[in-house]
Amino acid sequence: MTCVAMGYPDDDFAANAVRSDREHNEEFVRYVGFAD
Fold first, then answer.
1. Tell me, what DSSP letter sits at residue 18?
2. Which positions ≥6 away from 10 have C-beta within 8 Å?
3. Distance between CA atoms of 7 and 13, rounded to whole angstroms?
4. What is the pTM of this model?
5. What proportions of the chain, in percent to the nearest 5, are helix, strand and coil?
6. CA 5 to CA 16: how far, in whole Å?
7. Per its UniProt entry, which superkingdom is the organism in (predicted)?
8. Which of 1, 14, 22, 31 has the smallest number of Cβ neighbours within 10 A?
9. In this structure, are residues 16 and 10 in contact, taking their beta carbons and an 8 Å threshold?
10. Which residues, including other chains, have CB under 8 Å from residue 9's CB and lie 6 or more apart?
């Protein structure tokens, strides 16, 4: 599925203020076998 946004941005639209409270990758991901 693909979505294309068309029109002008509405900076006052409530959905634009939603921020995720997910944990950062560093808090639960472990990379094994890859050198920095």
1. -
2. 16
3. 14
4. 0.31
5. 20, 0, 80
6. 14
7. Bacteria
8. 1
9. yes
10. 16
- Token output for 8: 């002008």
Of 5, 26, 27, give the one whose Cα is nearest residue 16: 5
Residue 22, both tokens:
């997910």
Q: CA 31 → CA 5, 22, 24, distances in Å? A: 35, 19, 14
Residue 7 CA, chain-centre distance (Å), reads: 22
Burial of 12 (0-12, 13-18, 19+ CB in 10 A): exposed
Give per-residue pLDDT as tens, 1-36. Answer: 888 888 888 889 888 888 888 888 888 888 888 676
